[in-house]
Structures are given as C-alpha cells and as structure tokens.
Specification:
Blueprint (H helix, E strand, L loop, with lengths): L17 E3 L9 E5 L1 H6 L4 H4 L2 H7 L11 E9 L2 E7 L3 E8 L5 E7 L14 E2 H16 L6 E13 L3 E11 L5 H9 L3 H15 L6 H21 L2 E2 L21 E2 L23 H16 L6 H13 L1 H16 L7 H17 L3 H7 L12 H14 L4 H8 L7 H12 L4 H10 L31
Antiparallel strand pairs: 1-3, 2-8, 3-4, 5-6, 6-9, 7-9, 8-9, 10-11
The structure holds adenosine monophosphate and magnesium ion.
Adenosine monophosphate binds next to strand 4.
Length: 472
C-alpha cells in the first residue's frame, strides 16, 4: 500500500538550497482534523489516512515511506528590510505528490521542530495559528482563491511558550510549491548562479511550463500576483505580512499569520499587531505585491547576459502589474455586482459603493451578501445615498445578476471574532466550535439557515477583534 505516493523533485536540486532533516518527534500526538477530500485528490490511501501510522507521520513521529524531509533556505525583505537569511525555521517539507488531477504539490509539516534556520525560535507552533490557518486557507479555497491548503492538524501533547504556556500543534500544509520570492532572493544575493539557475528551471517546469526566459517567468508571476491580490480585495481579505518570503511564485496565498477578513470596511484597515506603520493595510496590498515582484525581478538579473538591458526589460514587465491588477480588480467587483460590462462607468459605480461603505462603516461581506434584497439598505447609514446608487446599479447590471452574485459573494466568511472563539474553546479542549465553523465556511455560498445564521453576524463592539498576532 502506498500511503502517500511521494515523487520528490526539489530534493534533487543543488544541496545548498536546503537542509535534509527529519521532523522532531512530539510527546503525545492526537488528531485535530483531517481533510479527506484533499487527501483523495493527493492520491493518499483513505484507510491509511485514518490510521495511527498516519497520525505518527503528520506529527513528525515516524518517517513517511518515500519522503525526503528537508527545510528550504530562503531570504526576505521583512517590512521592507532586507534579511539575508531565513528559511523553514519551523517547517519541514516531507515531499511532493502528483495528485489525481495531475498537479504536483508539496506536503509540508508546520510546527515540526527546530531546523538550521530557526534562529532563536523553538520550531513549534501553538494551537491558535494552526486552527486559524486551517480555517482561513480552507475558506479561501472554497471561495476560489488560489491558496495553500490544510491536509491535517494534530495536537502534540507538548506545551509551547509564547506570551503564555500554550498547547502545541502541527499543521500539514499542501501547496503547489513553497517557492517564494525570497527563495530567488537568497541565491541571487549570494551570487550562487548554480542554485539560481536550478531554481529558475525547476520553477518554470513546475508552474509556468510556457515560460522560456526569466522575463517570461517574471511576467507570469506578475500576472498571477495581480490576479491573486484582486481576489483578496474582493473578499475584504488582509494578508497581514506580505514580506517577500510570504509571496509565493506560484501565485497562491501562503503563510497565513495575522491575517483577517474585514468586518466593517475601510481601505486603511490593518490587523497585524506587528504592522505598526500600516505597510500591509488592505488598500496597500496591490502596491506591495508589485513591489515584491520588483524584488523577484532584481533576483533574476544575474541570469541575464546584459544587466542594463535586463533592468530595462524587467522594469517594463513589473510595470504591467498595474494593468493586470486593474483588469482583474474590475472583473472581480463587476462580478460581485452582476454588472454587464467592465467600463469606466462600472468602475465608478464600484468606487462610489466602496466610498459609501467606508463612510458608514458597512460590513464588507454582508453588503455584497444582501445586495439585491430588501436588507441591503440596512447596511448603510446614508439610506438616500444608497437608494441613488441603487438606481444607477439597476441600469448597469445583467438580467441574471442575482445568480452571478450568488456565486461571487460569500454569505459567510471566517470572521475574526469567531476564529478567536474557536481558539479559546479549543485551548480548553473543545474542538466542537472549530469543526462547526469549518463546515460552515467551506460552504460559503449556501443560503443562510438557522444552523448558519449566527456565524454571519458581524461582531458586537465587545466582540470585535482589532488586532491579530503572528503568534508564531
Ligand atoms: P513568518 O513571518 O511567519 O513567515 O516567519 C518568518 C521566519 O521566521 C520564517 O523563516 C520562519 O520559519 C521563522 N519562524 C517563525 N516562527 C518560528 C518559530 N517558532 N521557530 C522557528 N522559526 C520561526
Ligand atoms: Mg513566512
């Protein structure tokens, strides 16, 4: 029986790109969650997945047959500051599988012990961030956003020490790859042409087989990032830490830390406690994604024969971000409103709605979830303003706008205060609220019923979460 059908390619790359090492075993692993659908896509044996042997693998207590465990090296600009060496400090790549859909994916443990890249960290994760990432990544997937996914979560039976003593946990994360802008940066900054060339070839073969040149790769990443961030914007999602190590070259949302979906809308909203300057505020995300692409461009220059020509060409390519983003953003919001066209007039309609939402502090999700129903006007303080806006909307939307909108506007997102409540319950040993919220947010477009209604309600002033913590 092939438990996990590993087929590893990153481990074949030059040895300086990673460190081969096994996860550190934990005391008393227990299941928190298993994602059976994802396991099936990955070709993981269903019976094995429920076994104690699988639990040992996903806790890092037993080697998985066919795995080549390793920690990847990378670097990063963190909040704009260059950090020449980072790497998987609390994660181990078990290996890759080619799924039943033909896609190659990484299977990685997060929270699996110290590595040579751990610096002063303990290599562990506590339960809170594991549950947050599980919920938010699976919600993002359900809403059609490219994202890493959660395959399993286990508790470790060990404590980790953060601001308090907290229960430890390990997330098994699945990604199209864990190649980051920072993965290119580290080899470029070291002048390691062997590694940089191997990484380029690996990335192209894996993610962008049509790309022939570094500029082709850059263009593909620019486009993928522009489309990704447009989707975040359409859901009121704030990543929180868009450092270059948290920017996937495959264009997936990766490294969920202090992320959040906005409740009441404001473009300057920030959640992360460590983002004191608001660098990664909601409205700054497209600009930051373009900036991250520029860092990728810089890292690709050593692969080019003529530095000046490369700079000219890459600058043009990075500058196409704005057009890709604008088109993607307009399409996302026009779909959310069921509009017929994507003209400047449509763009103005969208902008005016968002201004009204910001002025009145309207709930981002519930505005779009209720548009077209009698409940929509209740989301706005300026009822006359909304009525006037609605008259313009009626003229620009399609006849079947409601069905388009129902597929684009989630009724339920994992709200911050609900995630916090889930974590609080889980710390006391009650995983019921976690599983309830997971089942609801993975059906984001289903109509509200009495089982789901309560989870769609925005937080009260007492419940509102104003800050999220990396909590690593
Ligand atoms: P992040 O901001 O979560 O992407 O993490 C930035 C870097 O810090 C990465 O290289 C992580 O591997 C590392 N890191 C974060 N938390 C820990 C931890 N508890 N132990 C070791 N390394 C960590
Ligand atoms: Mg990271």
């Amino acid at each position: 029986m092939t438990a996990i059908p590993f087929d590893n390619t990153f481990a074949q790359l030059p040895a300086q790109m990673f460190t081969t090492l096994a996860p550190t075993p934990v005391k008393a692993p227990a299941w928190i969650a298993r994602n059976d659908d994802l396991a099936a896509t990955l070709g993981i044996d269903a019976e094995w997945f429920g076994s104690d042997e699988a639990l040992a693998v996903f806790a890092g207590n037993a080697p998985a047959a066919g795995s080549h465990p390793l920690a990847q090296l990378y670097a990063a600009h963190q909040f704009g500051h260059w950090n020449p060496q980072l790497g998987d400090g609390r994660a181990i790549l078990l290996g890759e599988v080619v799924g039943t859909d033909g896609l190659r994916r990484d299977i990685q443990l997060k929270g699996s012990g110290r590595t040579p890249y751990s610096r002063s960290g303990d290599g562990r994760s506590w339960l809170g961030p594991v549950l947050r990432e599980y919920l938010v990544s699976e919600a993002m997937h359900a809403m059609g956003v490219p994202t890493t996914r959660a395959l399993a979560a286990v508790s470790t039976g060990e404590d980790v020490y953060r601001e308090a003593r907290l229960p430890g946990a390990i997330l098994t994360r699945v990604a199209q790859s864990h190649i980051r802008v920072g993965t290119f940066q580290v080899h470029a900054s070291r002048g390691d042409i062997e590694a940089l060339t191997a990484l380029f070839e690996h990335t192209v073969a894996r993610h962008y087989p049509d790309a022939k040149t570094p500029n082709d790769l850059l263009h593909a990443v620019v486009q993928a990032q522009a489309e990704l961030v447009a989707k975040w914007m359409g859901l009121g999602f704030i990543h929180g830490v868009m450092n270059t190590d948290n920017c996937s070259v495959a264009g997936e949302t990766i490294d969920y830390g202090p992320c959040a979906f906005m409740d009441n809308y404001h473009p300057a909203k920030v959640f992360s406690s460590i983002d004191q300057m608001g660098r990664y505020a909601y409205g700054n995300q497209p600009g930051i994604a373009a900036w991250n692409c520029a860092q990728l461009a810089t890292s690709l220059i050593p692969l080019m024969p003529d530095r000046d020509a490369a700079i000219t060409q890459f600058t043009e390519t990075v500058n196409t971000f704005a057009d890709h983003y604008e088109a993607a953003y307009l399409d996302v919001f026009a779909t959310k409103l069921g509009l017929a066209d994507r003209t400047a007039q449509d763009r103005a309609l969208i902008d005016n709605l968002l201004v009204m939402m910001a002025d009145g502090g309207a709930d981002f999700t519930n505005v779009f979830a209720t548009l077209g129903t009698d409940a929509a006007v209740d989301q706005f303080t300026d009822r006359d303003g909304f009525a006037a806006w609605q008259a313009r909307w009626v003229a620009l939307r399609t006849d079947d706008h409601l069905s388009t909108m129902a597929r684009a506007n989630p009724q339920i997102i994992p709200r911050n205060h609900q995630i916090e409540a889930v974590i609080t319950a889980a710390v006391t040993g009650d995983l019921g609220p976690f599983h309830k919220l997971l089942s609801v947010i993975t059906q984001p477009y289903a109509p509200l019923d009495e089982n789901r209604e309560a989870l769609a309600i925005p937080p009260t002033d007492q419940e509102v979460v104003t800050q999220t913590f990396c909590g690593t």
